[in-house]
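Sequence in, structure out.
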Amino acid sequence: MGKLKPFVVVVDDDESVSRAIRRLLRSIGIAAETFASGDAFLDVLSSLPSYRPDCVILDVQMPGLNGLEVQRRLSGSGIPVIFITAHDDIGVREQALAAGAVAYLRKPFNDELFVRTVRAALEGGQVP
């Protein structure tokens, strides 16, 4: 029996970034869905018990719930979290990693590094 395609959720209020990441993930055989806000993602997650992404990619700064708050609410779910941000604040970076994020990437990021990071998160291995 073959394993189902990995499923990743991208939460970013910048539609062009979400679209580009979704396209990149799909090009390497990873199913991806995007949300423009943490609230929208958490609403779907809580209302559909079978909805379970294998990894969540979060922007730090978004209207409504920011990425750190979404990460806090996912705490204990076992879903790996990767942060992407245009603002590399060392305090935010440390907070995200201390709360269990598997990676913290600065936009614009290298596609190859991003793909390696997502694959490592999905496999539960060491993130590059």
